[in-house]
Amino acid sequence: MIDRKHIGHAFPPHVSLIEAGRVRLYCQAIGETAPTHWDAKIARSAGYRNILAPLTFPTAVSMDSPNPRRVIELLDISLTRVLHGEEQYDYFAPICVGDEIATESKILDIYDKKGGSLEFVVLELNMHNQLDERVCKIRRSFIVKGTQSGFEGRSS
Amino acid sequence: MSPLNFETMKEGDDLPQMRFPPISRLQLALYCGGSGDHNPIHVDTDFARRAGLRDVISPGMFSMALMGRLVTSFAPPFRVTAFSARFIAVTWVGDEITATGRVAALDRDARSVRLDLSCLNQNGQTTLTGRAALSFAANRQNNTWR
Fold first, then answer.
1. Average pLDDT over residues A123-151
2. Do B83 and A55 touch (CB under 8 A)?
3. Going along chain A, which residue ranges are E strands?
4. Residues facing A143 on adjacent strands
5. Which end is more exposed in chain B, N or C (fewer Cβ atoms within 10 Å of the end residue's Cβ)?
6. Res B140: pLDDT
7. How far is CA A44 from CA A39, A40, A49, A50, A135, in A?
8. ipTM
9. Full set of structural domains in chain A with CATH
10. Hey, is the C-beta of B35 within 8 angstroms of any chain A C-beta?
11. Cα separation values, A2 from A85, A111, A127, Å
12. What are B2-13's pLDDT values in tens digits?
């Protein structure tokens, strides 16, 4: 069982510079070709500060923390037992190339189902930009499988 | 597809589905770098086999990104106020994903829309379910989203 004392644990905030090359690589990987995600001039004429990051890019921003494995390290669980269960975004303002995004994250909840054979860890991440505008909230849940259950058949 | 029009939109409308080519190892490698998710289970076959898998598995977030492309092919990004996905089944390298969606709810007064979304693999199995909320409020602008 994961120690419930970690509920409410807040990780040190981190700041990410949104680099053009990173957004380009992300768009290339997912096949995104819309001009607002590639061309600064077109993005600006559409009202954005600069090239717009795709809807799911905030998750990439969250991976910029100095130690992306800090959650599993804190909770002392093996990476191979962890599945991504859910990802939820609330959007308040766009993330554009050149932005500096500050991310705060905390453990919102830890609970179990099926007599403890499945545990759930819920994280909340809040992002603000260099203008101190709130840009995005992420609610992320991980499923942690018991040591005796298999891996295949259900995973991120 | 005709320009997006809230006035003529109605519950039950289907989004034009998007079919994606088989997920390649190159795509997973690019995604590993672009997303910052360096979990070896998505790119390193040796690691995946040691973990008891037959091959690498595609990140759930990769499919969610494809689902996001479906959403923003339907409505411009500044209209999207919320987007969520639940990861239901494994997606393997080589799988062919189709993203589908429909207008599940529509509020004429609030000028808001809820989309129900899915990703399916080549066998018709649902791999992700999702939802997106759209706002067609007149004051929601590109530059502020408010």
1. 88
2. yes
3. 10-17, 82-91, 100-113, 118-128, 134-145
4. A83, A120
5. N
6. 74
7. 9, 6, 6, 6, 18
8. 0.94
9. 4-17+58-149 (3.10.129.10)
10. yes
11. 17, 9, 27
12. 568 999 999 999
Picking from A47, A79, A90, the nearest residue to B141 by CB comes out as A47
What mean pLDDT comes out for the span B42-67?
A: 96
Q: Are B71 and B117 spatial neighbours (Cβ–Cβ below 8 Å)?
A: yes
pLDDT for A156: 43
Q: How are strands ordered across the β-sheet holding B126-135?
A: A10-17, A100-113, A118-128, A134-145, A82-91, B80-87, B126-135, B112-120, B98-107, B18-19
Q: In chain A, what residues touch B129 (CB-CB under 8 Å)? A: none
**A36 token code pair:** 């607002």
Is B92 part of the contact surface with chain A (CB cutoff 8 Å)? no
Q: State the average pLDDT for chain A.
A: 91
The DSSP bridge partners found for residue B128 are: B87, B119
Name the residue type at position A152.
Answer: E
| Distance from the A97 Cα atom to the nearest Cα atom in chain B, whole angstroms | 14
Residue with the larger pLDDT of the pair A148 and B141: B141
Q: Taking a C-beta distance cutoff of 8 angstroms, is the pair A31, B63 a contact?
A: no
CB contacts, 8 Å: B38 with chain A: 68
**What's the rounded mean pLDDT across residues B87-95?**
97
Look at residue A152 in the predicted model and tell me its pLDDT. 46
What residues pair up with A141 in beta bridges, in sequence order?
A86, A122
Q: Residue range A108-127: average pLDDT?
A: 94
B97 interaction partners in chain A (CB closer than 8 Å): none
B94/chain A closest Cα distance in angstroms: 14
Name the A residues in 61-100 with CB < 8 Å from any B CB.
63-64, 68, 79-80, 83-94
